[in-house]
Amino acid sequence: MQNKIKLKQHTKPLTSREADGLSQLIIVIPKAQVKGGWPEFPYAGTLKKRLSKADTEGLASTPYVTDLPNPVGTHVALGAVNEEMTSFELLTLARKLAGSALARHPGRVTLCLAGLNDTLGARVSEALVTALLAGAYSLPHFKTKKDKRTELATIELYGLAAMPDFRRSYAEAEGNNLARHLTSLPPNELTPATYRRRVTELARHHGWRMRFLDIAALKRLKAGTFLAVAQGSPKPDAGIVHLRYEPARGSRNPAVALVGKGVCFDTGGTNLKPAKHMYGMHEDMEGSAVALGTLLALTELKVNFPVDCWLALVQNHIGPNAYKQNDVVRASNGTTIEVIHTDAEGRMILADTLALASKKKPGFMIDYATLTGACVYALGTAYSGAFTNRPNLIPTLIETGRTSGERVWPFPMDEDYDTQLESKVADIKQCSTEGEADHILAARFLNRFVDKTIPWLHVDLASGNHKGGLAHIPTDITGFGVRYTLNLLLDQNVLTHARGKSK
Fold it and tell me: Is 9 a residue whose pLDDT tops 60?
């Protein structure tokens, strides 16, 4: 992973002498003062004069960029904020401000917050640091010509009287960068076997307990839905990784279970995808990467509750042994399933993984999956879908999206949807042939494999890939879910809110 970027905080204001020696300067001021009464900061007069010819109203969404008339030609990106801006809006502005500075590949970026009150200043500084940590991370590439760019080493912050604590921002960035890194790897670089080796190194470094349920172990557990997808692979390297974080001092707090879909490549199986839709299917393991990145972030923060992480690693291949339509398979919880479409493999591998995770009786369980095109059709890629067996949790899920800036929208989970999954030959169909409301049917299917006593959240990662980046993330691959989950687990009283009847 990337070297740690140092953060230097200064309670004193930035001086003109200091500004004269900077190569990259990001300035944020109150939107209310853009048209008059600017706060004091270096080169305020120069910027105000230049800005009078530009669109001052747009500073909350589009930074004003210019070079200062000093010996080093300081590159400045200026933005404006107010208290009404949502977290998503702040993070989006922060991404654009950070991107302007990082485009020149500096070793240092300086942040100057001028005229902001403590509350707004804390929000803005967190957004800027978060965006810089995301923007400075280089995703893997395999170009012959080596990149000799300077890496960001230092972030300096001026303009806040109180020193914010950015430990969570750094932990979140570590988790998100890991998720994006893994998701961007090509499918010949990240197979279930090589993925497991990477996870083994991480487990050793972070002190996680690790167990791997290989094909033989899954056969003993009668995990027929997972094995159905795995049986088409020429190499028997598929399996379920189980990782466990324990607080250093022990804890009586209930464990949180994180479950991730890890389809390292998805051909669609015997219902083969066309080329246009198969391209990019190395990203179909992003749910597992988000689960792993979230585990990493929670570990870095030394949370006081145990965390179980389950990674369902497989490839959906074609071949003479591949599973097919009308097959009937049996899950580890005894449920029989009629296969309707082999490209609905994600819910198959999650079924057994959720059933196995349920046996540990976690206090709360979340699964992440790039699961359905229907969710993308419903929401686009700016939001992800949320489904839960605790209806009383829905307001909390929406609020978590708003406060984190990683937005979700809940969908219904009513039992009458199950009529579309009724089978004449098995307990349940894998999906419907019609494709209508498939994201809801997928959630209803998965619900069959979650113990009803366990509060559960299913996140359909419609925004796992968003062209041009999303919120603070500058790359198409977003790693969506790490920030959301930290907010849900650490800022919302989710275990208390989750109590109640399942649906």
Answer: yes
Q: Which tokens belong to 406?
A: 């990683």
Edge-to-edge strands, sheet with 239-245? 209-213, 239-245, 307-316, 256-266, 364-369, 456-460, 384-388, 408-410
DSSP state of 38: P
Please report which confidence band the pLDDT of residue 1 belongs to, taking 50, 70 and 90 as the band edges.
very low
- DSSP class of 146: P
Residue 460 in this model has a pLDDT that exceeds 90:
yes
Q: Which residues contact 103 (CB under 8 A, 6 or more apart)?
A: none
Q: 3-class SS at 17?
A: helix
Give the pLDDT of residue 498.
67
Residue 355 CB partners (closer than 8 Å, separation 6+): 223, 331, 332, 333, 449, 450
**Average pLDDT of span 314-331:** 97
- Look-up of token digits 């449920």: 335
Is 444 known to be catalytic? no
Pick the catalytic residue: 123, 196, 261, 347?
Answer: 347
Question: What gap in Å lies between CA 72 and CA 19, rounded to an integer?
Answer: 10
CB distance 231 to 321 below 8 Å: yes
Task: Considering the candidates 108, 198, 222, 273, report the single residue annotated as catalytic.
Answer: 273
Average pLDDT in the chain: 95
Active site residue 347: yes
Q: How confident is the model at residue 54 (pLDDT cuts 50, 70, 90)?
A: low
Contact 69, 47 (CB under 8 A): no
> Is residue 411 within 8 Å of residue 388, measured between CB atoms?
no
Whether the Cβ atoms of residue 466 and residue 381 lie closer than 8 Å to each other: yes
What is the SS3 string spanning 282-313? HHHHHHHHHHHHHHHHHHHCCCCCCEEEEEEE
**Model confidence pLDDT, tens digit, residues 416-440:** 999 999 999 999 999 999 879 999 9
Residue linked to tokens 């009287």:
161
